[in-house]
Amino acid sequence: MSAEAALEYRVWGVGQASCNQYVAAFERGEVDSFKHYMAGYLTGFSMASDHKPGRLFAARPTPELLASLRSHCANHRMDSFERALQALLLAAQKDAETEAPTTGTWGRPPSTKGGN
Predict the structure, then answer these.
(1) Sign of CA dihedral 69, 63, 96, 40
(2) Beta bridge mates, 80
(3) Is the separation of the CB atoms in 17 and 80 below 8 Å?
(4) pTM summary value
(5) Which long-range contacts (CB under 8 A, 24 or more apart) does 39-48 make?
(6) pLDDT tens, 14-51?
């Protein structure tokens, strides 16, 4: 199998929609299908990658992620929604690589009381 063939994949569902269509849906408040596609996309990415979207997006609520996608799409209206998700992931990975590592971002904060 050639390297090019290995990189080919199919995009199904609303991932095929243009960014222009997403911007219009966002402005109408009709993003449920896009939100569900994003959730599945990030789940699939998490399963197939060393980068975990849960870590990349832990502090970002879903409405903020959808707004970030809208911002990208407003500037790249011919992109597909799936390409916008790729751009979101690449930006998050780049940010994660440049940030200082933190501890205690998951679970309960350490206790400040003495003893167990």
Answers:
(1) negative
(2) 18
(3) yes
(4) 0.73
(5) 41/15, 41/82, 41/85, 42/85, 42/89, 45/89
(6) 999 999 999 999 999 999 999 999 999 888 887 777 76
Under 8 Å between Cβ of 46 and 24: no
Separation between Cα atoms, residue 12 and residue 7, nearest integer Å: 16
User: Taking a C-beta distance cutoff of 8 angstroms, is the pair 53, 46 a contact?
Assistant: yes
What does the domain layout of the chain look like in residue ranges? 18-98
Question: Please, which pLDDT band fits residue 1 given cuts at 50, 70 and 90?
Answer: very low
Q: 79-96: b or e for each residue (b if 16 or more CB lie within 10 Å)?
A: bbbbbbbebbbeebeeee
